[in-house]
Design brief:
Order of helices and strands: HEEEEEEHEH
Radius of gyration: 21 Å
Structural class: alpha+beta
Oligomer: single chain
Number of helices: 3
Number of domains: 1
Largest sheet: 5 strands, antiparallel
Shape: flat
Protein backbone atom coordinates (compact mmCIF):
# COMPACT_ATOMS: atom_id res chain seq x y z
CA UNK A 1 0.00 0.00 0.00
CA UNK A 2 1.54 3.37 -0.98
CA UNK A 3 2.31 5.79 1.83
CA UNK A 4 0.56 9.12 1.97
CA UNK A 5 3.50 10.89 0.29
CA UNK A 6 4.66 8.17 -2.06
CA UNK A 7 5.07 8.96 -5.79
CA UNK A 8 2.09 6.74 -6.65
CA UNK A 9 -0.10 8.70 -4.24
CA UNK A 10 1.15 12.05 -5.55
CA UNK A 11 0.43 11.03 -9.14
CA UNK A 12 -3.08 9.95 -8.14
CA UNK A 13 -3.67 13.25 -6.33
CA UNK A 14 -2.37 15.23 -9.31
CA UNK A 15 -4.55 13.33 -11.76
CA UNK A 16 -7.61 13.84 -9.52
CA UNK A 17 -6.91 17.56 -9.34
CA UNK A 18 -6.49 17.79 -13.11
CA UNK A 19 -9.70 15.82 -13.67
CA UNK A 20 -11.49 18.07 -11.20
CA UNK A 21 -10.26 21.22 -12.91
CA UNK A 22 -11.51 19.94 -16.26
CA UNK A 23 -15.02 19.53 -14.81
CA UNK A 24 -15.25 22.69 -12.75
CA UNK A 25 -13.58 26.06 -12.25
CA UNK A 26 -12.80 27.77 -8.96
CA UNK A 27 -14.75 31.01 -8.76
CA UNK A 28 -14.46 32.07 -5.13
CA UNK A 29 -12.35 31.27 -2.07
CA UNK A 30 -13.26 32.16 1.51
CA UNK A 31 -10.60 31.63 4.15
CA UNK A 32 -11.36 31.92 7.85
CA UNK A 33 -8.59 31.79 10.42
CA UNK A 34 -9.16 31.91 14.16
CA UNK A 35 -6.48 32.09 16.83
CA UNK A 36 -6.56 32.28 20.61
CA UNK A 37 -3.96 33.77 22.91
CA UNK A 38 -3.48 34.13 26.65
CA UNK A 39 -2.20 37.63 27.33
CA UNK A 40 0.26 38.65 30.04
CA UNK A 41 -2.54 40.57 31.79
CA UNK A 42 -4.59 37.36 32.13
CA UNK A 43 -7.16 38.13 29.43
CA UNK A 44 -7.91 35.66 26.67
CA UNK A 45 -7.70 37.19 23.21
CA UNK A 46 -9.53 35.60 20.28
CA UNK A 47 -8.91 36.84 16.76
CA UNK A 48 -10.80 35.87 13.64
CA UNK A 49 -10.04 36.92 10.07
CA UNK A 50 -12.19 36.33 7.01
CA UNK A 51 -10.70 36.84 3.55
CA UNK A 52 -12.61 36.40 0.29
CA UNK A 53 -10.67 36.26 -2.99
CA UNK A 54 -11.33 35.53 -6.64
CA UNK A 55 -8.87 33.63 -8.85
CA UNK A 56 -9.41 36.07 -11.71
CA UNK A 57 -9.16 39.82 -12.28
CA UNK A 58 -12.33 41.80 -11.82
CA UNK A 59 -13.54 45.36 -11.90
CA UNK A 60 -14.83 46.64 -8.59
CA UNK A 61 -17.19 49.60 -9.01
CA UNK A 62 -15.73 51.34 -5.98
CA UNK A 63 -12.11 50.14 -5.74
CA UNK A 64 -11.19 49.80 -9.41
CA UNK A 65 -9.37 46.82 -10.87
CA UNK A 66 -8.67 43.87 -8.58
CA UNK A 67 -6.07 41.32 -9.58
CA UNK A 68 -6.42 37.56 -9.00
CA UNK A 69 -5.99 36.90 -5.29
CA UNK A 70 -6.70 40.50 -4.22
CA UNK A 71 -9.12 40.43 -1.29
CA UNK A 72 -12.75 41.27 -1.99
CA UNK A 73 -13.34 41.11 1.78
CA UNK A 74 -10.62 41.23 4.43
CA UNK A 75 -12.31 41.51 7.81
CA UNK A 76 -10.87 40.93 11.28
CA UNK A 77 -12.48 40.79 14.71
CA UNK A 78 -10.60 40.72 18.01
CA UNK A 79 -12.19 40.05 21.39
CA UNK A 80 -10.47 40.02 24.76
CA UNK A 81 -12.39 38.18 27.48
CA UNK A 82 -11.70 37.39 31.10
CA UNK A 83 -12.05 33.99 32.78
CA UNK A 84 -15.83 34.53 33.16
CA UNK A 85 -16.08 35.20 29.38
CA UNK A 86 -16.96 38.84 29.96
CA UNK A 87 -15.86 40.84 26.93
CA UNK A 88 -13.31 43.43 28.05
CA UNK A 89 -12.13 44.65 24.63
CA UNK A 90 -13.48 44.38 21.12
CA UNK A 91 -12.14 45.61 17.81
CA UNK A 92 -13.05 45.20 14.16
CA UNK A 93 -10.89 45.99 11.16
CA UNK A 94 -12.05 46.02 7.57
CA UNK A 95 -8.99 46.15 5.34
CA UNK A 96 -10.96 45.45 2.16
CA UNK A 97 -14.69 45.58 1.39
CA UNK A 98 -16.65 45.54 -1.86
CA UNK A 99 -18.82 48.52 -0.90
CA UNK A 100 -17.94 51.72 0.97
CA UNK A 101 -20.94 51.22 3.25
CA UNK A 102 -19.43 47.99 4.63
CA UNK A 103 -16.96 49.99 6.71
CA UNK A 104 -19.89 51.75 8.43
CA UNK A 105 -20.16 48.63 10.60
CA UNK A 106 -16.88 49.39 12.39
CA UNK A 107 -18.12 52.40 14.43
CA UNK A 108 -21.46 50.67 15.08
CA UNK A 109 -19.66 47.68 16.58
CA UNK A 110 -17.37 49.97 18.56
CA UNK A 111 -20.38 51.86 19.99
CA UNK A 112 -22.03 48.55 20.87
CA UNK A 113 -18.90 47.52 22.75
CA UNK A 114 -18.66 50.89 24.53
CA UNK A 115 -22.32 50.69 25.57
CA UNK A 116 -21.86 47.17 26.87
CA UNK A 117 -18.63 47.99 28.70
CA UNK A 118 -20.33 50.96 30.35
CA UNK A 119 -22.57 48.37 31.98
CA UNK A 120 -19.61 46.33 33.23
CA UNK A 121 -18.89 44.42 30.03
CA UNK A 122 -20.91 41.97 28.03
CA UNK A 123 -20.86 38.22 28.40
CA UNK A 124 -20.20 36.26 25.24
CA UNK A 125 -23.84 35.09 25.19
CA UNK A 126 -25.06 38.68 25.62
CA UNK A 127 -22.82 39.84 22.79
CA UNK A 128 -24.29 37.18 20.50
CA UNK A 129 -27.84 38.22 21.34
CA UNK A 130 -27.04 41.89 20.89
CA UNK A 131 -27.34 42.74 24.62
Amino acid sequence: MPSRHSPARLETDASREQECCERRRLMHRRSIECTGHLRNDGLWEVEARLVDTKPFALRDHFRGDLQPGDPVHDISVRLAVDDTLTIREAETTMRATPFPTCTEVEPVLQRSWENASGQGGATSSGARSGG
